Amino acid sequence: SSRRRHTRYGTVTGVQTCALPIFLPALTRDVAVVQATADGLARPLASETDMAQILRNLSDAMTSQRLTNQEIQTQSMMPGGDYNRVPMFLRFQGSFESAYNFVRTIEQSPQPIRIDKLDLMCPPNQPGSSKLMANVELSALLKPAPITVSKGGQP
Fold first, then answer.
1. 59-99, pLDDT tens digit by residue?
2. Are the CB atoms for 71 and 131 separated by under 8 Å?
3. How many helices (H) and strands (E) does the chain have?
């Protein structure tokens, strides 16, 4: 029949499928290889005390790319389970090449910084200008603060 069936094994046409046995040692080995690769690629989370250095690095990177009208704003840290997040908003002007190189610098940062949003636009009243205006939303990912327990057993 050409009727489709939705099963817990997937969408099939005409025939019911079933799960195949998995060779567990090979799967375990493959998972270990993927985990080792991910561990090698992961960047360590920064601590709260590293925030000033992160901001200096961003400012230095914008200056080295000759970006002008620079502005950096941070918001309060947002706690999370595996990491805390500090939202940052950057504005600057420069050539497309300079903006691109700046974004590459962020991607290669030793601290994990996530680019949440990137807006590039031509400056108003300057059509055809080689300069761009950029608004960038970033998140610095920080280690969660350790939980301290008081003598009474309550955090």
1. 999 999 999 999 999 999 998 878 889 999 999 999 989 99
2. no
3. 3, 6
